[in-house]
Specification:
This protein is an alpha/beta fold. About 35% of the residues lie in helices and about 15% in strands.
Amino acid sequence: MAAQPPHDLNCLTIAELEKHAEQRMDKQTRDYYNEGADSGSTLLENSQAYSKYRIRPRVLRDISLIDTSCPLFGSKSPLPLGVAPTAMQCLAHPDGELATARACRHAEVVMGLSSFATTTLEEVAAASGDNPRVLQLYLFEEREHSRKLIQRAKASGYKAVFLTVDTPMLGRRNLEIRNQFKLPKPYKIANFTEDSDSAASKTVMDGASSDTDTPKRESKRGTSTPGHHDGRRRKPPAGPISFHSHAPNPTLCWERDIDWLRKECKPEMEVWVKGIATGEDALLAVHHRVDGIVVSNHGGRQLNGALATLDALPEVVDAVQGKIPVHVDGGIRHGTEIFKALALGADFVWIGRPVLWGLSYKGQEGVELCLRLLRDEFTLCMGLAGTVKVTEISKDYLAKIDKAGFVSRL
Protein backbone atom coordinates (compact mmCIF):
# COMPACT_ATOMS: atom_id res chain seq x y z
CA MET A 1 0.00 0.00 0.00
CA ALA A 2 1.27 3.46 -0.92
CA ALA A 3 2.42 5.68 1.90
CA GLN A 4 -0.26 8.00 3.26
CA PRO A 5 0.34 11.69 2.49
CA PRO A 6 0.96 13.84 5.55
CA HIS A 7 -1.94 15.59 7.21
CA ASP A 8 -2.75 19.11 6.09
CA LEU A 9 -2.56 20.67 9.53
CA ASN A 10 -4.53 23.68 8.33
CA CYS A 11 -7.44 21.52 7.21
CA LEU A 12 -8.43 18.38 9.12
CA THR A 13 -12.20 18.38 8.53
CA ILE A 14 -14.72 19.22 5.80
CA ALA A 15 -15.94 22.08 8.03
CA GLU A 16 -12.45 23.59 7.95
CA LEU A 17 -12.32 23.02 4.19
CA GLU A 18 -15.51 25.06 3.83
CA LYS A 19 -13.97 27.94 5.77
CA HIS A 20 -10.86 27.94 3.57
CA ALA A 21 -13.07 28.01 0.48
CA GLU A 22 -15.10 30.94 1.80
CA GLN A 23 -11.91 32.98 2.03
CA ARG A 24 -10.86 32.11 -1.52
CA MET A 25 -14.09 32.38 -3.50
CA ASP A 26 -15.43 35.72 -4.68
CA LYS A 27 -18.91 36.63 -3.44
CA GLN A 28 -20.71 35.71 -6.65
CA THR A 29 -19.14 32.24 -6.74
CA ARG A 30 -19.61 31.63 -3.03
CA ASP A 31 -23.27 32.61 -3.18
CA TYR A 32 -23.90 30.54 -6.30
CA TYR A 33 -22.37 27.36 -4.89
CA ASN A 34 -23.62 27.57 -1.33
CA GLU A 35 -27.14 28.97 -1.70
CA GLY A 36 -30.34 26.96 -1.35
CA ALA A 37 -33.79 27.84 -2.62
CA ASP A 38 -35.82 30.55 -0.86
CA SER A 39 -35.02 30.62 2.89
CA GLY A 40 -32.61 27.68 2.56
CA SER A 41 -34.40 25.52 5.10
CA THR A 42 -34.17 22.33 3.01
CA LEU A 43 -30.49 22.98 2.36
CA LEU A 44 -29.94 23.23 6.12
CA GLU A 45 -32.09 20.20 6.90
CA ASN A 46 -30.13 18.03 4.46
CA SER A 47 -27.23 18.28 6.90
CA GLN A 48 -29.22 18.42 10.12
CA ALA A 49 -31.05 15.19 9.32
CA TYR A 50 -27.91 13.19 10.12
CA SER A 51 -27.83 14.52 13.67
CA LYS A 52 -31.09 12.70 14.43
CA TYR A 53 -29.26 9.37 14.33
CA ARG A 54 -26.62 7.83 16.59
CA ILE A 55 -24.40 4.84 15.87
CA ARG A 56 -24.69 1.68 18.00
CA PRO A 57 -21.15 0.26 17.97
CA ARG A 58 -20.43 -3.43 18.44
CA VAL A 59 -17.20 -4.53 20.16
CA LEU A 60 -14.89 -7.52 20.55
CA ARG A 61 -14.93 -8.20 16.83
CA ASP A 62 -11.88 -8.71 14.65
CA ILE A 63 -11.69 -5.54 12.56
CA SER A 64 -8.07 -5.91 11.51
CA LEU A 65 -9.00 -6.03 7.81
CA ILE A 66 -11.65 -3.50 6.74
CA ASP A 67 -12.99 -3.64 3.18
CA THR A 68 -14.73 -0.40 2.13
CA SER A 69 -15.42 -1.51 -1.45
CA CYS A 70 -18.84 -1.92 -3.06
CA PRO A 71 -20.31 -2.79 -6.48
CA LEU A 72 -20.83 0.05 -8.94
CA PHE A 73 -21.81 -0.01 -12.63
CA GLY A 74 -20.92 -3.67 -13.00
CA SER A 75 -17.52 -3.24 -11.41
CA LYS A 76 -16.15 -2.43 -7.97
CA SER A 77 -15.62 0.93 -6.29
CA PRO A 78 -13.06 1.17 -3.47
CA LEU A 79 -15.52 3.38 -1.56
CA PRO A 80 -19.32 3.75 -1.48
CA LEU A 81 -18.72 7.39 -2.38
CA GLY A 82 -18.79 9.37 -5.62
CA VAL A 83 -18.28 12.98 -6.65
CA ALA A 84 -21.65 14.43 -7.61
CA PRO A 85 -22.05 16.50 -10.77
CA THR A 86 -21.79 20.22 -10.06
CA ALA A 87 -21.83 22.95 -12.68
CA MET A 88 -19.16 25.43 -13.72
CA GLN A 89 -16.26 24.25 -11.60
CA CYS A 90 -13.83 26.71 -13.18
CA LEU A 91 -15.46 29.30 -10.94
CA ALA A 92 -13.82 27.54 -7.99
CA HIS A 93 -10.41 27.02 -9.59
CA PRO A 94 -8.97 27.65 -13.08
CA ASP A 95 -8.40 23.92 -13.60
CA GLY A 96 -12.06 23.25 -12.81
CA GLU A 97 -13.43 19.87 -13.85
CA LEU A 98 -10.00 18.69 -15.03
CA ALA A 99 -8.61 19.02 -11.50
CA THR A 100 -11.62 17.14 -10.13
CA ALA A 101 -11.23 14.39 -12.73
CA ARG A 102 -7.54 13.96 -11.92
CA ALA A 103 -8.27 13.84 -8.19
CA CYS A 104 -11.00 11.25 -8.73
CA ARG A 105 -8.66 9.19 -10.87
CA HIS A 106 -6.00 9.32 -8.17
CA ALA A 107 -8.51 8.22 -5.52
CA GLU A 108 -10.31 5.77 -7.86
CA VAL A 109 -13.59 7.52 -7.04
CA VAL A 110 -16.31 7.84 -9.68
CA MET A 111 -16.91 11.35 -11.00
CA GLY A 112 -20.22 12.85 -12.12
CA LEU A 113 -19.96 15.56 -14.77
CA SER A 114 -22.58 18.28 -15.14
CA SER A 115 -23.99 19.01 -18.58
CA PHE A 116 -23.29 22.65 -17.76
CA ALA A 117 -19.60 22.10 -17.07
CA THR A 118 -16.89 24.57 -18.01
CA THR A 119 -14.87 21.71 -19.54
CA THR A 120 -15.98 19.40 -22.35
CA LEU A 121 -16.96 15.84 -21.53
CA GLU A 122 -14.22 14.63 -23.87
CA GLU A 123 -11.54 16.54 -21.97
CA VAL A 124 -12.83 15.17 -18.67
CA ALA A 125 -12.80 11.65 -20.11
CA ALA A 126 -9.18 12.07 -21.18
CA ALA A 127 -8.20 13.33 -17.72
CA SER A 128 -10.10 10.45 -16.08
CA GLY A 129 -8.39 7.65 -17.97
CA ASP A 130 -9.95 4.33 -16.97
CA ASN A 131 -11.63 5.81 -13.90
CA PRO A 132 -15.45 5.55 -14.15
CA ARG A 133 -17.52 8.65 -14.87
CA VAL A 134 -21.18 9.49 -15.40
CA LEU A 135 -22.90 12.34 -17.22
CA GLN A 136 -25.63 14.37 -15.56
CA LEU A 137 -28.26 15.19 -18.15
CA TYR A 138 -31.00 17.77 -18.50
CA LEU A 139 -33.28 16.38 -21.18
CA PHE A 140 -34.06 19.36 -23.39
CA GLU A 141 -37.38 19.88 -25.13
CA GLU A 142 -35.53 19.90 -28.43
CA ARG A 143 -34.24 16.34 -28.28
CA GLU A 144 -31.50 16.73 -30.86
CA HIS A 145 -29.36 18.77 -28.45
CA SER A 146 -29.60 15.98 -25.87
CA ARG A 147 -29.11 13.24 -28.45
CA LYS A 148 -25.81 14.77 -29.56
CA LEU A 149 -24.61 15.02 -25.97
CA ILE A 150 -25.54 11.39 -25.28
CA GLN A 151 -23.72 10.18 -28.37
CA ARG A 152 -20.60 12.06 -27.34
CA ALA A 153 -20.78 10.56 -23.84
CA LYS A 154 -21.13 7.05 -25.25
CA ALA A 155 -18.13 7.61 -27.53
CA SER A 156 -16.11 8.88 -24.54
CA GLY A 157 -16.78 5.88 -22.32
CA TYR A 158 -19.19 7.29 -19.75
CA LYS A 159 -20.80 4.55 -17.69
CA ALA A 160 -24.22 6.08 -17.15
CA VAL A 161 -26.50 9.04 -17.70
CA PHE A 162 -28.02 10.59 -14.58
CA LEU A 163 -31.23 12.27 -15.73
CA THR A 164 -32.11 15.18 -13.45
CA VAL A 165 -35.85 14.91 -12.84
CA ASP A 166 -36.43 17.53 -10.12
CA THR A 167 -36.14 20.57 -12.38
CA PRO A 168 -39.36 21.00 -14.38
CA MET A 169 -39.09 24.62 -13.20
CA LEU A 170 -36.18 26.37 -11.54
CA GLY A 171 -36.26 26.92 -7.79
CA ARG A 172 -36.02 30.52 -6.59
CA ARG A 173 -32.44 31.35 -5.63
CA ASN A 174 -32.51 34.87 -4.31
CA LEU A 175 -28.80 35.57 -4.10
CA GLU A 176 -28.39 34.39 -7.68
CA ILE A 177 -31.09 36.88 -8.71
CA ARG A 178 -29.66 39.73 -6.62
CA ASN A 179 -26.12 39.13 -7.89
CA GLN A 180 -27.36 38.86 -11.50
CA PHE A 181 -25.10 35.88 -11.76
CA LYS A 182 -23.25 35.35 -15.03
CA LEU A 183 -20.25 33.28 -15.96
CA PRO A 184 -17.20 35.56 -16.13
CA LYS A 185 -14.69 35.67 -18.94
CA PRO A 186 -12.97 33.59 -20.24
CA TYR A 187 -15.10 30.64 -19.16
CA LYS A 188 -17.90 29.12 -21.18
CA ILE A 189 -20.43 26.30 -21.03
CA ALA A 190 -18.14 23.98 -22.90
CA ASN A 191 -20.45 21.16 -23.95
CA PHE A 192 -22.79 23.36 -25.98
CA THR A 193 -20.48 25.72 -27.85
CA GLU A 194 -21.23 23.86 -31.09
CA ASP A 195 -24.88 24.84 -30.68
CA SER A 196 -24.05 28.47 -29.96
CA ASP A 197 -22.62 31.52 -31.66
CA SER A 198 -19.65 33.42 -30.26
CA ALA A 199 -21.78 35.51 -27.91
CA ALA A 200 -23.78 32.60 -26.55
CA SER A 201 -20.68 30.61 -25.77
CA LYS A 202 -20.06 33.10 -22.98
CA THR A 203 -23.51 32.73 -21.46
CA VAL A 204 -24.83 30.57 -18.68
CA MET A 205 -27.93 31.64 -16.82
CA ASP A 206 -30.18 33.76 -19.02
CA GLY A 207 -28.50 34.09 -22.37
CA ALA A 208 -26.92 37.44 -21.54
CA SER A 209 -23.19 37.67 -22.07
CA SER A 210 -20.88 38.70 -19.25
CA ASP A 211 -18.70 40.46 -21.80
CA THR A 212 -19.80 44.11 -21.80
CA ASP A 213 -17.73 44.76 -24.94
CA THR A 214 -19.79 42.38 -27.11
CA PRO A 215 -21.26 44.31 -30.05
CA LYS A 216 -25.01 44.84 -29.85
CA ARG A 217 -25.74 42.90 -33.04
CA GLU A 218 -23.80 39.87 -31.73
CA SER A 219 -25.45 40.10 -28.32
CA LYS A 220 -28.89 40.15 -29.93
CA ARG A 221 -28.05 37.01 -31.87
CA GLY A 222 -26.95 35.37 -28.63
CA THR A 223 -30.22 35.91 -26.75
CA SER A 224 -31.95 32.79 -25.41
CA THR A 225 -35.64 32.59 -24.56
CA PRO A 226 -37.33 29.98 -22.37
CA GLY A 227 -40.13 27.75 -23.60
CA HIS A 228 -43.72 28.78 -23.00
CA HIS A 229 -47.31 27.83 -23.75
CA ASP A 230 -49.10 30.32 -25.98
CA GLY A 231 -52.56 29.05 -25.05
CA ARG A 232 -52.77 26.66 -27.97
CA ARG A 233 -49.51 24.77 -27.94
CA ARG A 234 -46.14 24.52 -26.25
CA LYS A 235 -43.31 26.48 -27.85
CA PRO A 236 -39.85 25.12 -26.94
CA PRO A 237 -36.91 27.28 -25.87
CA ALA A 238 -35.29 29.32 -28.61
CA GLY A 239 -31.80 30.63 -29.19
CA PRO A 240 -28.47 29.33 -27.93
CA ILE A 241 -28.48 26.91 -25.02
CA SER A 242 -28.37 28.53 -21.59
CA PHE A 243 -29.22 27.13 -18.18
CA HIS A 244 -32.26 29.25 -17.45
CA SER A 245 -33.79 28.81 -20.89
CA HIS A 246 -33.11 25.14 -21.62
CA ALA A 247 -32.42 23.17 -18.41
CA PRO A 248 -35.94 23.34 -16.92
CA ASN A 249 -38.30 21.15 -18.90
CA PRO A 250 -41.93 21.09 -17.69
CA THR A 251 -42.92 18.58 -20.40
CA LEU A 252 -40.88 15.64 -19.03
CA CYS A 253 -42.92 12.54 -18.24
CA TRP A 254 -42.30 8.89 -17.39
CA GLU A 255 -44.16 7.32 -20.29
CA ARG A 256 -42.48 9.15 -23.15
CA ASP A 257 -39.10 10.35 -22.01
CA ILE A 258 -37.63 7.44 -20.05
CA ASP A 259 -38.30 5.03 -22.92
CA TRP A 260 -36.70 7.46 -25.37
CA LEU A 261 -33.66 7.89 -23.12
CA ARG A 262 -33.18 4.14 -22.69
CA LYS A 263 -33.22 3.66 -26.46
CA GLU A 264 -30.63 6.40 -26.91
CA CYS A 265 -28.28 5.24 -24.13
CA LYS A 266 -28.44 1.47 -24.24
CA PRO A 267 -26.48 -0.74 -24.23
CA GLU A 268 -23.37 1.37 -23.69
CA MET A 269 -24.67 3.48 -20.81
CA GLU A 270 -27.00 2.86 -17.90
CA VAL A 271 -29.96 5.19 -17.32
CA TRP A 272 -30.47 6.53 -13.80
CA VAL A 273 -32.94 9.10 -12.48
CA LYS A 274 -31.61 11.73 -10.08
CA GLY A 275 -34.11 13.61 -7.94
CA ILE A 276 -36.42 10.87 -6.62
CA ALA A 277 -37.84 11.66 -3.17
CA THR A 278 -40.91 9.43 -2.71
CA GLY A 279 -41.77 5.76 -2.70
CA GLU A 280 -44.39 6.33 -5.41
CA ASP A 281 -41.84 7.70 -7.87
CA ALA A 282 -39.37 4.99 -6.90
CA LEU A 283 -41.95 2.37 -7.94
CA LEU A 284 -42.47 4.18 -11.24
CA ALA A 285 -38.71 4.19 -11.80
CA VAL A 286 -38.63 0.42 -11.35
CA HIS A 287 -41.65 0.02 -13.62
CA HIS A 288 -39.98 2.03 -16.38
CA ARG A 289 -36.81 -0.08 -16.09
CA VAL A 290 -34.31 2.55 -15.05
CA ASP A 291 -31.01 1.14 -13.82
CA GLY A 292 -30.81 3.10 -10.58
CA ILE A 293 -32.12 5.95 -8.43
CA VAL A 294 -30.41 8.88 -6.76
CA VAL A 295 -32.45 10.24 -3.86
CA SER A 296 -31.80 13.95 -4.23
CA ASN A 297 -33.41 17.38 -3.81
CA HIS A 298 -30.82 19.17 -5.92
CA GLY A 299 -28.79 20.19 -2.90
CA GLY A 300 -31.78 22.07 -1.47
CA ARG A 301 -31.81 24.35 -4.51
CA GLN A 302 -35.25 23.47 -5.93
CA LEU A 303 -38.35 22.96 -3.73
CA ASN A 304 -37.71 24.57 -0.37
CA GLY A 305 -39.69 22.73 2.28
CA ALA A 306 -39.11 19.33 0.66
CA LEU A 307 -37.91 16.43 2.76
CA ALA A 308 -34.23 16.21 3.56
CA THR A 309 -32.76 13.46 1.40
CA LEU A 310 -31.87 11.30 4.41
CA ASP A 311 -35.48 11.55 5.59
CA ALA A 312 -36.77 10.58 2.13
CA LEU A 313 -34.34 7.69 1.77
CA PRO A 314 -36.08 4.96 3.85
CA GLU A 315 -39.38 5.07 1.96
CA VAL A 316 -37.56 4.91 -1.38
CA VAL A 317 -35.51 1.93 -0.20
CA ASP A 318 -38.64 0.19 1.07
CA ALA A 319 -40.45 0.76 -2.24
CA VAL A 320 -37.61 -0.52 -4.41
CA GLN A 321 -37.08 -3.71 -2.38
CA GLY A 322 -33.58 -4.22 -3.78
CA LYS A 323 -34.68 -4.40 -7.43
CA ILE A 324 -32.35 -1.55 -8.43
CA PRO A 325 -29.60 0.35 -6.58
CA VAL A 326 -30.55 3.38 -4.48
CA HIS A 327 -27.99 6.15 -4.03
CA VAL A 328 -28.36 9.37 -2.05
CA ASP A 329 -26.79 12.84 -2.00
CA GLY A 330 -27.15 16.00 0.05
CA GLY A 331 -25.70 17.19 3.34
CA ILE A 332 -22.87 14.68 3.81
CA ARG A 333 -19.98 16.35 5.60
CA HIS A 334 -18.32 13.50 7.54
CA GLY A 335 -17.50 9.83 7.12
CA THR A 336 -19.90 8.86 9.91
CA GLU A 337 -22.69 10.31 7.78
CA ILE A 338 -21.78 8.00 4.92
CA PHE A 339 -22.15 5.16 7.41
CA LYS A 340 -25.57 6.44 8.54
CA ALA A 341 -26.84 6.73 4.97
CA LEU A 342 -25.76 3.17 4.20
CA ALA A 343 -27.34 1.95 7.43
CA LEU A 344 -30.65 3.46 6.29
CA GLY A 345 -30.48 1.50 3.06
CA ALA A 346 -28.46 3.52 0.56
CA ASP A 347 -26.09 1.54 -1.60
CA PHE A 348 -23.84 4.52 -2.30
CA VAL A 349 -23.56 8.27 -1.58
CA TRP A 350 -22.55 11.31 -3.62
CA ILE A 351 -20.96 14.54 -2.40
CA GLY A 352 -21.10 17.91 -4.13
CA ARG A 353 -20.26 21.11 -2.26
CA PRO A 354 -17.33 19.66 -0.25
CA VAL A 355 -15.59 18.87 -3.54
CA LEU A 356 -16.09 22.46 -4.70
CA TRP A 357 -14.64 23.68 -1.42
CA GLY A 358 -11.61 21.45 -1.89
CA LEU A 359 -11.23 22.64 -5.46
CA SER A 360 -11.25 26.25 -4.33
CA TYR A 361 -8.79 25.50 -1.53
CA LYS A 362 -6.01 23.83 -3.52
CA GLY A 363 -7.27 22.63 -6.89
CA GLN A 364 -6.63 18.95 -7.53
CA GLU A 365 -4.77 18.63 -4.24
CA GLY A 366 -7.76 20.10 -2.40
CA VAL A 367 -10.19 17.63 -3.98
CA GLU A 368 -7.85 14.77 -3.10
CA LEU A 369 -7.80 16.09 0.47
CA CYS A 370 -11.60 16.19 0.58
CA LEU A 371 -11.89 12.59 -0.61
CA ARG A 372 -9.14 11.42 1.74
CA LEU A 373 -10.78 13.00 4.78
CA LEU A 374 -14.10 11.30 4.05
CA ARG A 375 -12.44 7.98 3.24
CA ASP A 376 -10.41 7.98 6.45
CA GLU A 377 -13.41 9.01 8.57
CA PHE A 378 -15.62 6.35 7.00
CA THR A 379 -13.03 3.61 7.41
CA LEU A 380 -12.50 4.57 11.04
CA CYS A 381 -16.24 4.63 11.63
CA MET A 382 -16.66 1.17 10.14
CA GLY A 383 -13.99 -0.24 12.41
CA LEU A 384 -15.17 1.47 15.58
CA ALA A 385 -18.74 0.38 14.85
CA GLY A 386 -17.57 -3.22 14.52
CA THR A 387 -18.03 -3.72 10.77
CA VAL A 388 -15.49 -4.88 8.21
CA LYS A 389 -17.62 -4.95 5.04
CA VAL A 390 -20.05 -2.44 3.59
CA THR A 391 -22.68 -5.16 3.31
CA GLU A 392 -22.65 -5.53 7.10
CA ILE A 393 -23.86 -1.97 7.67
CA SER A 394 -27.58 -2.01 8.50
CA LYS A 395 -30.27 -0.38 10.65
CA ASP A 396 -29.07 -2.52 13.53
CA TYR A 397 -26.20 -0.06 13.90
CA LEU A 398 -28.42 3.00 14.29
CA ALA A 399 -30.65 4.55 16.93
CA LYS A 400 -32.82 7.62 16.44
CA ILE A 401 -33.16 10.52 18.84
CA ASP A 402 -36.43 12.45 18.91
CA LYS A 403 -36.85 16.13 19.74
CA ALA A 404 -37.26 15.33 23.42
CA GLY A 405 -33.95 13.48 23.46
CA PHE A 406 -35.38 9.98 23.76
CA VAL A 407 -33.51 7.20 21.97
CA SER A 408 -35.26 4.45 20.02
CA ARG A 409 -34.01 1.49 18.01
CA LEU A 410 -34.84 1.40 14.34
